[in-house]
Design a protein that fits this description.
heterodimer, A: alpha/beta, 5-stranded mixed β-sheet, 4-stranded parallel β-sheet, globular, B: alpha+beta, 7-stranded mixed β-sheet, 22 strands, 22% helix, 19% strand
Chain lengths: 432, 476
């Protein structure tokens, strides 16, 4: 147990995702409370007061996003749960969708009530099979029990939900790309302004929230923002679901209270690195966040502000542990291949920059590296930063410079000797 | 009215404008590829990055003006980023300007000289893609040259509405491709995408490898293919590049036709039919006056025509609606009292041609029906009892419908069988050989200018009318 828990509060069994068990855990009480006792504005105020930050990667406050939407502006509003979980290393939303889909649905109902939404959507990534079946089953159960449709729980409130399966593009996880995909177009992200909360799906005000962010809403409404704020740190209230993988004894999804010591989490909760090897570095929140070395994380706690201060971010909560003896050149090759493959090709710097970086790193790994290649990777990263429509171009640059800054010597060694300093391995070797 | 500052200059902008709009209005040039005033904002080329004090870099084409913002269009940071953007754009671009039709009028070429000018920093192989992809019977696509600005796809979605183009795959291997079941060849405005393309990716089959653009000059003209009367540029070889070594027909031919932007008539577009003017004007020409099919001198032909007119009882004229305002007025002035004039439809819709739509194309396939009807009325041609002389001006009239015994004076530009059936045949010049004006269906008057010398042996219709009206033995 990495501190107090808000979402993983029950033992996972073969039936723990069902409506019956969710109700037995106190499910849909928050919805009833909201519809009977709260005004929509109160819900928005409560969520804003909780300081809940987005769990998808950008950590933008959920309440501030909601406050932009004018309840009575005469437009239809839309709510979309972003379940297109595609950041490498991240599989936390999958846990919610598989084991507790009703908490997402309940929270979406509450959010729909707060934001005057008649139709909401879940955009789920196409590769998710079990999560999709569990979610679709939960939607069916919820409709049958009268939580969706007209006159929810006997009130005037009406809300419908559509579960839409994506087709596997990473960039469709970006909110505006997701909307384009949902509209049936190619998932090209869109320039801002206008923001999505002004003009989003079908040109109407739209709120797009991550699954985990939304799932916290039911608890916040039920217990109050003050209770939520007692968990976590002042600047990072609540908990984070962390999906941990890589060189770690017990990979999986963990709920971590913000402010929990990092090393304690890795060693006690996750069982440490196989063979007790030292940690070389950690990708803290999906490969788009900058890596932190073993030395850097020693004294850190897991909170947004602590990671920002360290020059990285908690991102999407996809943590990858990399043990000593891993070849960082090969690691960067894998990462850059991913960005090259997933660039949507809409705007110039990312379309060409990701491919350029990938070709350079491929050449280095093949033994054809040249001394100015490192400078060139920096050059591409620099001019991808802040010049692209969405964050994917920036992210490719961050991932690249994050590793180059800290492990430049390995790249120089590889270029000079035409071989890896560590045998090119990405596996966790038992002994060195 | 927010006041903004561009490069230190205070400017009163209007609400709802973008920085790009304001900068263009006030003469601050911001380079761009994907932006186009008539299309939606795509913001994908990233060439128009500008710096806003306190906010860093962002694209000008999608940046709404806000009070007091300080924009810099050429700061060091902006220059460095522009240079890098051009590095990215040319990374996989073949830079085959030597064999590219667009060279000389290519935005990428101009910007590279202006804002980058360096060799590529890349040492790796370029991404290969399709060359000469068959988009339609009129257009080829070179995907390696394409910079994916998406002007062409936006044009087919927003202007011509054929929805014929889209993007296939993603990243640096994404390609413009036709959409299934929506062939670009059925889009009557498709050739506009060739002009819209800022690089040489979209190629007109008509113009492919025909000429370097710097050998050519444009002459402003008016498209005669329907009553819209779109303003066009007729491109032909410059005087100094008309070479003896070339086939004379090549020296005096229409190389291509492009739109001339005219907000009052056609905006920046024209239809494909307008691009095919060479098919109209480069048909075999008649260049000799004839009397009953036998070649004759112009003086003899005019004498005979005058004799026929002076001995007639009732003369009818079928007036061409391809005549310019000046020619129609000259006919009215010189021969209006002698002849009973009717407006003749020179051209009918061709097989497969779009008849009419709500963008540009009109059902009347002649340029000057409006002015001709003003002068000669709306009646369809008919021949009152006793008509013994008919003057036919221009092509497109079936001689079998003429009164059987009437004598015929025929003015035509092209070599056609009817020429020999006329009692007097007089060859006349065509639009590309003279200046004049057309009045379109909305009453907008547009001017055209001559591109070529008049062919030897032909006369302007205006001069012929004057000569025919002269009492006797008047010559040209």
């Amino acid at each position: 147990m990495a501190g107090r828990q808000l979402l993983m509060t029950f033992p996972v069994t073969a039936t723990s995702h069902s409506l019956a068990e969710y109700l037995a855990r106190g499910g849909y009480v928050a919805l009833a409370k909201t519809l009977r006792e709260m005004k929509p504005q109160d819900v928005v105020k409560e969520v804003a007061a909780s300081g809940l930050q987005g769990r998808g990667g950008a950590s933008f406050e959920v309440g501030r996003k909601w406050q932009v939407v004018q309840y009575d502006d005469g437009h239809p509003h839309y709510l979309i749960a972003n379940a297109d979980e595609g950041e490498p290393g991240t599989f936390k939303d999958r846990w919610i969708l598989e084991n507790n889909p009703h908490v997402l649905l309940e929270s979406m109902l509450i959010a729909s009530y707060a934001l005057n939404v008649r139709n909401c959507f879940v955009y789920i990534r196409g590769e998710f099979d079990l999560p999709y079946r569990r979610l679709a089953g939960a939607v069916e159960e919820a409709y049958a029990a009268g939580y969706f449709g007209r006159n929810v729980l006997g009130t005037d409130f009406a809300c419908d939900i559509v579960v839409y399966r994506g087709a596997g593009a990473y960039v469709a996880g970006e909110a505006s790309g997701l909307i384009a995909s949902l509209e049936g177009k190619k998932s090209y992200p869109r320039n801002r302004p206008p923001r999505l909360t002004v003009r989003g799906l079908y040109q109407q005000p739209t709120v797009v929230n991550n699954v985990e962010s939304l799932s916290n809403v039911a608890g916040i409404v039920l217990h109050g923002a003050a209770a939520f704020r007692t968990v976590g740190t002042a600047k990072s209230p609540g908990t984070r679901l962390i999906s941990i993988s890589g060189h770690i004894n017990r990979p999986g999804v963990y709920e971590v209270e913000c402010g929990y010591p990092w090393m304690k989490f890795l060693e006690e909760d996750c069982g440490g690195v196989p063979g007790a090897r030292p940690i070389k570095c950690v990708v803290p929140g999906g490969v788009s966040s900058k890596v932190l070395t073993g030395a850097e994380i020693k004294e850190l706690v897991l909170s947004h502000e602590a990671l920002w201060d360290a020059g990285s971010t908690m991102g999407s909560g996809g943590m990858i542990v990399i043990a000593e003896g891993t070849c960082m050149v090969s690691l960067l090759q894998v990462i850059l291949r991913f960005y090259h493959h997933e660039s949507c090709g809409q705007c110039t710097p990312c379309r060409h920059g990701t491919g350029w970086m990938h070709r350079i790193i491929d050449r280095i790994v093949a033994g054809g590296g040249m001394p100015d290649d490192i400078d060139r990777l920096y050059y591409v990263s620099k001019f991808n930063d802040g010049t692209t429509i969405c964050g994917l171009g920036d992210a490719a640059g961050y991932a690249c410079t994050g590793i180059l800054d800290k492990f430049r010597d390995e790249f120089e060694y590889y270029i000079e000797h035409k071989r890896s300093k560590y045998g090119g391995s990405l596996e966790c070797l038992k002994s060195s | 009215m927010p006041e903004i500052f561009i490069n230190g200059q205070a400017i009163q902008a209007r609400d709802g404008q973008t920085v790009m709009d304001v900068a263009r209005e006030h003469g601050h040039f911001i380079p761009y590829f994907c932006w186009h005033p008539q299309l939606s904002t795509a913001g994908n080329c990233r060439m128009c990055l500008v710096e806003v004090e306190g906010r860093g870099l962002d694209i000008a084409c999608n940046m709404p003006v806000s009070k007091g913002m300080k924009v810099f269009t050429a700061s060091d940071d902006v220059k460095a980023h522009r240079k890098a953007i051009l590095q990215f754009i040319t990374l996989n671009h073949p830079v085959d300007c030597g064999i590219c039709d667009k060279a000389g009028e290519c935005t990428l070429q101009d910007y590279h000289y202006e804002y980058n000018g360096e060799h590529s920093l890349s040492r790796d192989e370029k991404v290969k893609s399709t060359k000469f992809y068959n988009l339609s019977n009129r257009i080829l696509l070179d995907n390696e040259r394409c910079i994916l600005c998406l002007r062409c796809t936006r044009f087919t979605h927003e202007v011509s509405k054929s929805m014929a183009l889209g993007v296939e795959r993603r990243g640096d291997v994404s390609n413009i491709r036709p959409v299934e079941d929506r062939p670009l060849s059925e889009d009557p405005y498709s050739d506009n995408i060739v002009d819209l393309c800022p690089v040489g990716a979209l190629l007109s089959r008509q113009f492919l490898h025909k000429s370097r653009v710097w050998f050519l000059q444009p002459t402003p003209s008016v498209c005669p293919r329907c009553s819209r009367g779109c303003s066009i540029q007729v491109w032909h070889r410059k005087q100094e590049w008309r070479l003896k070594a070339l086939d004379p027909r090549q020296n005096e031919s229409i190389a291509r036709v492009t739109p001339l932007e005219n907000p009052a008539v056609n905006g920046p577009w024209i239809c494909n039919v307008g691009r095919d003017l060479a098919q109209v004007f480069e048909r075999a020409r008649a260049d000799e006056p004839m009397l009953k099919g036998r070649p004759a001198g112009i003086a003899a032909a005019l004498d005979e025509a005058r004799r026929i007119i002076s001995t007639a009882r009732h003369c009818v004229a079928l007036v061409s609606n391809w005549g310019s305002n000046e020619e129609l007025e000259a006919f009215k002035r010189y021969l209006g009292e002698v002849f009973h004039g009717f407006v003749k439809q020179d051209w009918q819709p061709q097989p497969g041609e779009r008849i009419e739509d709500d963008l540009l194309i009109r059902s009347d396939k002649n340029p000057n029906t409006a002015r001709a009807r003003e002068l000669f009325g709306d009646d369809a041609p008919h021949f009152p009892e006793g008509t013994d002389v008919v003057l036919v001006w221009g092509e497109g009239f079936d001689f079998a419908q003429l009164p059987p015994r009437a004598r015929i004076i025929f003015l035509n530009s092209y070599l056609q069988p009817e020429n020999g059936h006329a009692d007097v045949f007089l060859p006349i010049s065509i639009q590309t050989e003279r200046a004049g004006h057309y009045t379109n269906f909305e009453g907008v008057v547009s001017a055209f200018e001559p591109c070529f010398e008049k062919k030897p042996g032909v006369s302007d219709a205006e001069a012929l009318f004057k000569a025919l009206a002269a009492p006797a033995r008047g010559h040209l």
